[in-house]
Amino acid sequence: MSESLSSQAQVEIEAAFKRPMAELQQHKGKSALLDVVIAIHERLAFADRSVQFQAQHLRKFLAPERGIGDSDVSHILDCAQRLAQAHAARTAHAAALTALLGIRQTPVQGSTPASRAPAQAQTAPPTR
After folding, report:
1. What is the CA radius of gyration of the chain?
2. Which pTM value belongs to this model?
3. CA 116, CA 52: separation in Å to the nearest integer?
4. CA-CA to 107 of 20 to 30 Å: which in 5, 56, 65, 124?
5. How far apart are CA 33 and CA 8, in angstroms?
């Protein structure tokens, strides 16, 4: 079996923050970005496990030595739907982590600090 997306993401997270995941988890609550990255990684890991479980479950239903009865059809369809949902969730979480880690590693170009913003035009002082 190939390496899971959550394992690959963990390597990327550790490289981006230059710390092992166990150490990063101890710093929860200190950085909003880190909190979001860890939360998405946890959801990605859950989705990975769900994909693996549903795929294994579906393989059992579709094993060549096992016949498919009328009662199995609804279970197979349900399992296939859950597999598709877990795969979609895994893909979405992986994309979110990729985007966040890209933000973390790439400074924003062309942004102007607020202190350099042009001053608002002065208006005439009120009379009286």
Report:
1. 24
2. 0.73
3. 52
4. 5
5. 19
Query: Which of the pair, 104 or 10, is modelled with greater confidence?
Result: 10
- Residue 94: which of 17, 1, 11 has the closest Cα? 11
Q: In sequence order, what are the residues at sequence separation of 6 or more whose Cβ sits closer than 8 angstroms to the Cβ of residue 83?
A: 51, 54, 55, 58
CB of 48 within 8 A of CB of 27?
no
Three-class DSSP category at 106: coil
| Tokens of residue 18, six digits | 């230059």
Q: What is the pLDDT of residues 22-49, one digit of tens each?
A: 999 998 888 888 899 999 999 999 999 9
Write down the H helix ranges in the chain: 5-17, 21-26, 32-61, 70-105
Alpha carbon distances (Å) from 34 to 27, 30, 94, 104, 123: 8, 8, 15, 10, 44
Q: Which letter, b or e, does each residue of 76-114 get, where b requires 16 or more Cβ atoms within 10 Å of its Cβ?
A: eeebbebbeebbebbeebbebbeebbeeeeeeeeeeeee
Q: How far apart are CA 11 and CA 33, in angstroms?
A: 17
